[in-house]
Amino acid sequence: MQILVVNPNTTASMTETIAAAARAVAGAWTEVVAVTSSMGPASIEGYYDEALAVPGLLMEIAAGERAGAQAAIIACFDDTGLDAARAMASIPVIGICEAALSVASYIAQRFTVVTTTERSRVPVEGLVQRYGMAGRARVRAADIPVLALEDSTSGAVEKLRAEIGRAIEEDRAEAIVLGCAGMADLAHQLQDEFDLPVIDGVGAAVKQAEALIALGLSTSKRGAYASPLAKSYRGVLKSFSPGTIAAE
User: Which residues form a coiled coil (predicted)?
Assistant: First the structure.
């Protein structure tokens, strides 16, 4: 089976981190195809970045589906463009936030999401509520710019460790969810260090994508995720007209 993993920001080095985490947990029968968006922000931190990352994300998912992908993963913890992608695509599309929260709910009653900055914490908190986990999950920000995770001299990992320590002590967290795809390579190390489950959304999404493919399930096209109605789009978004983007 083939799974497409899309990094919806334009930082290729982060895609490499994401791809390694995805391939580390994928089954022997799974081919992981990891791609970087060709247009949009270098990192997604807040609502503005998120909105402008969606067109590039949709282009990559449409191209991946045409190339034979059987499922797609959006590797941003904001679940950037998830609803739009599900409406556009005929293959299942999974967001790493929803995937990680689902996995955490199987193994802990109380858990904490540790994300990057305050402007990212607020959207993630909204997703926690949307996915029905508000009574079980708390969201914390470690004051880490996303791109600082790429810099070993930035002190980002030390800040992350400190926030996890506070989550265990103050929230009584029974598990930790890493709230950024750029943290994917740290999950096992932090799990060993803190002696509790640490969940990376990329890995969680890969296993859920494999399950959906094996079960022969995809997104319902009745109701909210029905294919977009045919209509013309103008200006720079002309190529995103329903039916056009999927065919290019």
Answer: none
Q: What is the CATH number of domain 97-200?
A: 3.40.50.12500
Q: pLDDT confidence of 231, banded at 50, 70, 90?
A: confident
* Domain layout of the chain by residue ranges: 2-96+203-247, 97-200
Q: Tokens 């941003």 label which residue?
A: 76
Fold of 2-96+203-247: Rossmann fold (3.40.50)
Q: In the sheet that 93-95 helps form, which strands lie side by side, from edge to edge?
A: 31-36, 2-7, 71-74, 93-95
First to last CA, the chain: 23
Token pair, residue 92, equals 């299942």
Q: Quick one: how many helices (H) and strands (E) in the chain?
A: 9, 8
Domains 2-96+203-247 and 97-200 belong to one CATH topology: yes
CA dihedral (135, 167, 131, 21) in degrees, to 10, reads -160
* pLDDT (tens digit per residue) in 127-177: 999 999 999 999 999 988 887 887 778 888 899 999 999 999 999 999 999
Rounded CA-CA distance 12/26 in Å is 21
- Of 4, 63, 18, 1, nearest to 38 (Cα)? 63
